[in-house]
Amino acid sequence: MSKKEEAFYNKLELSLNKTLTFPTDYMYKFIIPNQLEQKKQIENIFNLMGAVIKSKPSKAGNYTSITVIIKVKSAIEIIKKYKEVAKVKGVISL
Predict the structure, then answer these.
(1) Do 64 and 31 meet the contact criterion of CB atoms below 8 Å apart?
(2) Percentage of the chain surpassing pLDDT 70?
(3) Considering only the top CATH level, what class is 3-93?
(4) Confidence at residue 69, expressed as pLDDT on a 0 to 100 scale
(5) pTM (2 decimals)?
């Protein structure tokens, strides 16, 4: 991980700890190319966690918006999932 990425995740962790009380429901939002493989990869990352996953194709059909809501115990858990999803080709985390 680059120093820039590390600084980003450290700042995110501080912000999450300031604004959230754990455990809490957390909402992730992602944009992916409209390909089934990327959608399955993201679903597998959140598999067996009791996640509510919703997807919606873009108007032109080129991309899919994915919303994932899960109960998390800590900011570290949130960041861990962001890092896992970042490995999916073409994903944009919002």
Answers:
(1) yes
(2) 100
(3) alpha beta
(4) 97
(5) 0.92
